[in-house]
Design a protein that fits this description.
Belongs to the ferredoxin--NADP reductase type 1 family. It comes from OM182 bacterium MED-G24. Its cofactor is FAD. With 463 residues, the chain is of the alpha/beta class. Helix content is 34%, strand content 21%. A 7-stranded mixed β-sheet has the order 3-2-1-4-20-19-18, with helices on both faces. The structure holds NADP nicotinamide-adenine-dinucleotide phosphate. NADP nicotinamide-adenine-dinucleotide phosphate binds at residues 115, 156-162, 164, 201-203, 207, 209, 214, 280, 327-330, 375-378.
């Protein structure tokens, strides 16, 4: 048998999860011109692109233009897409070992973190991740309902996901109808009574997780005023000292932008978005349905690792809200036969090489993206992340550390066809894409999304 990575015996890689980290795995391999590969990209949905389709906000079309580069990667002759195929259901570790030299997990982090406060299970308490997937038309979440008859809503957390959720709630109907938000969400939000949205940050503006363009964009909403309480928008001495010493550019800009909103009178727009700082939820209140949220005022202190942390005071407040979204980060979930770090919500790994948790490499298994490093960074962060893993894969190929597949290169296609009759190829996806874009053109929108798997399969087959 010729050497692995040669034209006659290409390195066979299965990539589980067709989001940004999956596509950057392909493009990183393409940089090794002398190594021949066969890369098979699997996704449990019929649609590729992961959070670019189902997470990035519907009004952020520019961010979604990365899919043009992903298209190019997917259309290379050595790349195949197996959509509508779920690892652990249609394909298992034993199958992968028989057909591939290496497996890359880039399946993201779809679960949410909890607040651990009483009342979190009351009606009206949701994760922001569910709401995001719902308004983006993810088929598994399209059926969800949110009580948008409520006038006041609290979002816990001040990361970019919280900002997205706040913006979707505060947009006008016309602003939403110019986007590719799922139709069911546009219609539900058109009937919404929401007038007051609170974003609750446990630390100050200098420690906020949102980024400057996102916080600036809030001030450009057509019919929503931004409110920041004067004393909460002002920088405390500890944060000022830290900014002076460390000068993080985003933090400096965030502080400046929040300072601009602080203490400004409201202009009488029909919605208000209040961004609160130095407050933590202590209880979601109500019998069955949320009636309010109890928050405690925090003060900041320097912990023994030099981080500025929040500490509760004895100063409490209650906000009368009927809906609460917790937006305190995503978390990965375990996959069959893959070592998982429960506390971190990610796969045990060293630079992307899967380990057994005791530092020993698990031969043939790799990971990239949020399931490797946790839910941080922007889309482009996955490029360098996948690069790091692919470098390890190439080193391991050269050192002979890999599975030894026994089946032919083509055998997997018929196996998948037998396990999933509604298998979706990249050509099938291209038909779904063309259908959605054409439907969008008719309405002056980027696309009208299909939100059910049977509808996607029907369109793919009708082509
Ligand atoms: P994130 O950036 O990690 O923000 C999480 C927020 O939750 C922080 O404000 C954090 O506060 C807060 N938090 C955590 N635990 C809490 C608790 N127990 N009580 C109260 N607050 C708590 O997470 P994310 O917003 O889900 O975003 C995930 C990643 O996607 C980020 O890297 C983000 O930048 C990226 N993203 C980017 C865009 C964009 O570029 N437009 C859009 C969406 C998402 P502390 O800081 O005090 O921990």
């Amino acid at each position: 048998m010729s050497e692995i990575g040669s034209e006659q015996n290409p390195l066979r890689v299965a990539v589980i999860g067709a989001g940004p980290a999956g596509f950057y795995t392909i493009s990183n391999f393409q940089r090794f011109k002398e190594i021949h590969t066969q890369i098979d990209l699997y996704d449990r949905l019929p649609t590729p692109f992961g959070l670019v389709r189902n997470g990035v906000a519907p009004d952020h079309q520019k961010d979604k233009s990365v899919t043009r580069a992903y298209d190019k990667s997917a259309q290379q002759p050595n790349v195949r897409f197996f959509g509508n195929v779920e690892y652990g259901s249609h394909i298992h570790m034993d199958d992968l070992k028989k057909h591939y030299h290496m497996v890359m997990f880039s399946n993201g982090a779809k679960m949410d973190r909890s607040l651990d406060v009483p009342g979190e299970n009351l009606l009206g308490s949701h994760s922001a991740t569910d709401f995001v997937a719902w308004y983006n038309g993810h088929p598994d979440y399209a059926h969800l309902e949110f009580d948008l008859s409520q006038e006041s809503v609290a979002i816990v957390g001040i990361g970019n996901v919280a900002v997205d959720v706040a913006r979707m709630l505060c947009m006008t109907d016309a602003e939403r109808r110019a986007t590719d938000m799922a139709d069911h969400a546009i219609e539900a939000l058109a009937k919404s009574n929401v007038k007051h949205v609170y974003m609750l940050g446990r630390r100050g503006p200098a420690q906020a997780a949102f980024t400057p363009p996102e916080i600036k964009e809030l001030g450009e909403l057509e019919d929503a005023d931004i409110e920041v309480l004067a004393d909460e928008g002002r920088l405390d001495a500890l944060s000022q000292e830290d900014l002076d010493a460390n000068g993080d550019k985003n933090a400096v800009k965030n502080v400046e932008l929040i300072g601009g909103y602080a203490g400004q009178p409201l202009s009488g727009k029909s919605k208000t978005l209040t961004i609160r700082f130095l407050v933590s939820p202590t209880e979601l209140q109500g019998d069955k349905q949320i009636k309010g949220i109890r928050i405690v005022r925090n003060e900041l202190y320097l912990d023994d690792r030099g981080s500025i942390r929040p500490r509760a005071t004895d100063n409490f407040e209650e906000l009368p809200v009927g809906l609460v979204f917790r937006s305190v980060g995503y978390r990965g979930s375990p996959l069959p036969d893959v070592p998982f770090h429960e506390a971190w919500g990610s796969i045990h790994n060293e630079l992307g090489r899967v380990t057994d948790g005791n530092g020993n490499n698990v031969e043939g298994l790799y990971c990239a993206g949020w399931i490797k490093r946790g839910p941080t960074g922007v889309i482009g962060t996955n490029k360098t992340d996948a690069q790091e893993t692919v470098k390890c894969m190439v080193e391991d190929m050269e050192a002979g550390h890999h599975f030894n597949p026994t089946e032919s290169l083509d055998a997997i296609s018929s196996l998948m066809q037998s396990r999933q009759p509604d298998l979706i190829s990249y050509d099938d996806w291209s038909r779904i894409n063309a259908y959605e874009v054409a439907a969008g053109e008719a309405e002056g929108r980027p696309r009208v999304k299909l939100t059910s798997v049977p509808d996607m399969v029907k369109v793919a087959r009708a082509g």
